[in-house]
Each structure stands twice: as structure tokens, then as C-alpha cells.
Design a protein that fits this description.
8 helices, five-stranded mixed β-sheet, 13 strands, about 325 residues, alpha/beta, Nucleotidyltransferase, domain 5, homodimer
């Protein structure tokens, strides 16, 4: 009998990756196209379909279960991508419908946002195997989250649940991409860490810092990690502040949903204990007694380069 | 055929009420005993059981489906009441087991915390009929919450989910009963409103306020409502501040769970638009665009005096 596989598609702001994933979460082969810079959705769907068909024809022996798509601002209920701020497509894109026109033979085509996809990947193939209640946090340009409740993703009434990046951590705080102020992702994302670094540089007039010689646009969270490893005080303080604020927000999320574990995923997670230690300490210090010492904060077990495709492909089974 | 009914028990800090509830959410008859002041759990269970048996023998024609219990710090999974700060019982009380010993014939005996019970009541008999995703907020001495996700109560990994009252709204804020600081219920509860009133009295040295002539312990949220109706500025400001903070916390809860509606229940809810207007305005102002104008904030449709019994009785069916 033909082995059952699914196709995962990860639409990112720069590139769109896709691949064939087997039942054990092994990526058999993957490919990539450039996400367009301009709003030409039909061309993009055509290019993506051509790429997927090429892979499928190369592995024609498999039993294809479907295509799962992870995209920023993706809506699971409607199969749409809506007003995505990091994609060029305007308005509401009926992505699943457009893809179904190209793949009428596929048993299932589904779409969700990238953080929800990552949560599914963690549940099927990663560290959350067997867990019924956990939270996935994806830290990149922004901060995304997927809440798994009773073994199912929490989509809410309209498919948009899980926007932990937009809870308020400081009223009157930093300006957020969504137009509001003081939201979590303005502090606890790769971008937020850079903002914190530059706030600290200016506050302390820290001309001696390793971070004082690059522009705002050129500085990355990786630069902050590298500087921290060399003992740079500004960089070390960035991790303390980021961990403090993230830990407080995670405590709030625990009070609401009481998960077994929280998984962190994304570039800054590679910083290891520099990030996890202050996160855990802050979370514990904000928890009411009955939650203390119960909730694990763990790095994602999905490989950075494959997680998005794996997660998206998992959508076919959930 | 005998009509199916269930028994609801609401354990409060002062009184324990119980009653027979029919399938339409009508309380057929109810009774009350005093919740003991001292930790004598066996005496309490005996008294409660005697009271319930008296009701049952009076209505012996009914087909009893079970007993549902709502209690502070009640745990649905374990059927326990754990370290309840507003009850005299120390440690972990195996309440469901103790009750089963007295009612071996009952098909089902279940227990949850009072806010979860209220959420079930709203779903089966109140304004949340037919809703799959909503939040119930109970405002009393503290602030409790029950999250309904995909038509089911969210209990989390250990049965303690839904503690919205303990999310942090201001780090370094007011001291909370749980030992932490700045938690929501220190501001947005009947007690929190009195604390806000006294903070404002002291800040403005408001000797002319209608609230300036009663002690801290004697002042209630009802006094603040009465003073606000007479135009008292301190009282009006209490509602503004309470609404502001609650609205921000509700926006966070919306970002996480994307509910169809949020129901408010409890004494201060009787203040109507004085409370709801600033709550709605603040919530909307903190929401990211895709959630704005979507989430209804409504008063509970359960009658104040019956809600707890109704909610507890609903547990038998869920």
C-alpha cells in the first residue's frame, strides 16, 4: 500500500516553502519560491501550484492526504488570508478556494495562521506529543501563539484566537504594528529586542556597548545574543527585560488556560538560558500559588528550518 | 414518565444554597444552610446531605440526574475543593467522594468552581444559549471567569483554568489575596472598587464625597453605585477606572480566545451603563483592528439569586 503523506506550505513574508511530509514528520523533499513583493495573487497561486505539482509528480507513488497551509493572518474557518500586514496581498484572499481550483483531486486543503500551524507541528511531531493542553509561542518579527485546549487548537468564534502578541503589557507603551500601544510583541519579539537594545543604548548613552556601532535597521536579535555572550551589559539587560515581560505575559496565559507546558519557537530561542532563565523566573514570580512549579517552559523540538512546513502539513490530519 | 431534574449546590463563604432544577432551568424549590466558620467538613457534608435528602423526599416523583456543586477553588477533574481562601476547610477536600458516600444512588455527582458553574448556567439557561465560544465573568468579592471554547468549558491541564482575576494589570500594583501584586481582581471586583474609592478619597482629600463618611469595612460597591447616581465625582471616577482596567483585561482575553460574547455577572453589574460603557470603550480601544466591533459585552441573563444553583445543576448535563 502506498505510504500516506501530506504537503505542507509555509507562506512567509520573503519566501514560500513547501514540502512532502510523511506520517512520522519526516520532510521527504522540499522546495521554495519567492513570495511576491506585489499583490499578484493569481500569479503566486500558479507558481506555487506548479512547484507543488512538480514535487508530487516526482513522488507519484505516495497516497496524498491533502495540503496544509500556514500563513500570517490565515483564518482556519474561512480558508482565507485576511489583511496580512507582512504579505503584499490586499484584503481578504480566499486562498483555500484558489488552491482547490488547482488541486481538485486533493482530499483536503486547509489553512491556518503560522503560529497555529507550529502548534499542530509540535503536537504531532514535536515535544507536545500526547499533551492535551499547551501553548506554542513563535518569536520572530512579531510574536504569535497557538493555544491547544482539550487536544484541539483554540480558534475562537471567528478563527482568529491566539493573538497573545497583542495583549497589553504596558498601557501607554510602545507603538505596535496593529496600531495599538504597549502590546507584548513590541517587547518580546526579535524586533522588540532590538527596540529594547536601542532604548537602553539611548538611556545609558552606552557608547561602549558592542551594539552601538550598527544602525537600527541592521541590528538583529542575533547581534544581541552575540554581544550578550561576550558579556555586553546592554545585551544582557535586553535578555533580562525581554524575559521579565514575556514571563509576566505567560503567567497571565497560564492563569487563563492552565497548560501543561509552553513551547517557545523562533530565532531568539537559540539564545537558550539567556532567555529561558528570566522567562521562567518572571513567570513563576507572577503566578498565583496553585500554578507555581507546574508549567514547563521548553524550547520547541521542531527543527527551525522545517517547523513551518511540518506544522502546516499537520493541519491535514487535524 | 418522571420529569428529569438535577440538584444544584452553591457553596459560598457565608451560606450554602441548594435546589432542585428542572430541564428548562426553573428552580423548583431551594433551601439553605450556613457554611461553617470552622473546618468541620464532615459535619458540613452531613448537614448538606440531610438538607438535600429532605428536598428529594418532598419531590420523590422526579427522575434525579445527579448533583452539581459550585465551590470556590473547586476542581472539576478531581472533584476536590483545594486550599479555598474564602472557606474554612483546610487543604484538599475530596468533596465529590464525600458526597457520593451519602448519595450512592445518584447517577452523577460533579463539582467545579463557581465561575465555571455560572458559565455553564449561562450556556444552558441564559444568554449564551447556542454560543460555542464565550467568556463568563463573575464579579463579587473577587473576579472569577469561565471560558467556553468550542462548546466546552476550558479546564486546562489540571482543572484550574479560567483565573482571569489573577492576570497582572499593573506590575507593582495592589496586593492580591493570592499573595501576588497588581492582579485584575484587586481593581475590578466589588472589593477592588471600594479600594479604588478609598484611594481616590485619600488622593483628592475628598471630604465632600458621599463616600467619605463610612469606614473601609462598611463601604460596599452598592454604596458607590448609589453615590454615583447622585453625581458624586469620586464614585463616578471609580466606575471610569474600574471600566478602563476591566476593558483592557477583556481585550487581552479576546486576543487570546476570540469569543462571541463576554457576560458579566455579579453585584456591580446592576450598575448598568455606569459600568458597561467604560468597559466597552476601553476594550474596543485596546483591541487590534480585526477584533473591533465584534465582541458583545452583555449582562448575564441569569437571575442574581438563582445563577449559582442553576450553573451548578447544569454541571450534571455537561
Amino acid at each position: 500500500m502506498a505510504a500516506k503523506v501530506s504537503i505542507g506550505v509555509d507562506i512567509g513574508g520573503t519566501n514560500t516553502e513547501f514540502g512532502i511530509v510523511d506520517g512520522d514528520g519526516k520532510v521527504i523533499e522540499r522546495a521554495m519560491i519567492t513570495t511576491p513583493k506585489k499583490d499578484n495573487i493569481n500569479q503566486f497561486i500558479d507558481d506555487l501550484s506548479t512547484g507543488i505539482k512538480r514535487l508530487v509528480s516526482k513522488y507519484s507513488d505516495f497516497d496524498y492526504q491533502g495540503i496544509g497551509v500556514g500563513a500570517p493572518d490565515g483564518n482556519f474557518y474561512k480558508g482565507t488570508i485576511e489583511h496580512a500586514s507582512n504579505l503584499p496581498f490586499q484584503g481578504v484572499i480566499p486562498f483555500v478556494s484558489l488552491l482547490k481550483e488547482r488541486f481538485p483531486e486533493m482530499k483536503k486543503i486547509a489553512l491556518t495562521n503560522d503560529a497555529n500551524a507550529a502548534a499542530l507541528g509540535e503536537m504531532l511531531y514535536g515535544g507536545a506529543k500526547g499533551m492535551k493542553n499547551f501553548i506554542m509561542i513563535t518569536i520572530g518579527t512579531g510574536l504569535g501563539s497557538g493555544f491547544v485546549v482539550n487536544g484541539e487548537l483554540m480558534y475562537g468564534s471567528d478563527g482568529f484566537a491566539g493573538e497573545l502578541g497583542h495583549v497589553t503589557v504596558t498601557s501607554e507603551g510602545r507603538e505596535c504594528g496593529c496600531g495599538q500601544f504597549g502590546h507584548l510583541e513590541t517587547y518580546c519579539s526579535a524586533t522588540g529586542m532590538v527596540r529594547t537594545a536601542f532604548e537602553l543604548l539611548s538611556h545609558h548613552n552606552a557608547t561602549e556597548s558592542l551594539l552601538a556601532n550598527k544602525s537600527f535597521n541592521q541590528t538583529t536579535s542575533k547581534d544581541i545574543f552575540d554581544a550578550a555572550k561576550k558579556g555586553d551589559e546592554i545585551a544582557l539587560t535586553v535578555f533580562e527585560i525581554t524575559g521579565d515581560i514575556l514571563g509576566q505575559a505567560l503567567a497571565d496565559a497560564v492563569h487563563i488556560s492552565s497548560p501543561e507546558a509552553i513551547f517557545l519557537f523562533g530565532g531568539p530561542v537559540a539564545s537558550g538560558e539567556l532567555l529561558f532563565k528570566p522567562v521562567r523566573e518572571s513567570m513563576e514570580s507572577h503566578l498565583m500559588p496553585m500554578f507555581r512549579g507546574k508549567v514547563k517552559v521548553l524550547p520547541s523540538r521542531l527543527r527551525q528550518g522545517e517547523a513551518a512546513i511540518l506544522g502546516a502539513s499537520a493541519l491535514v490530519y487535524k
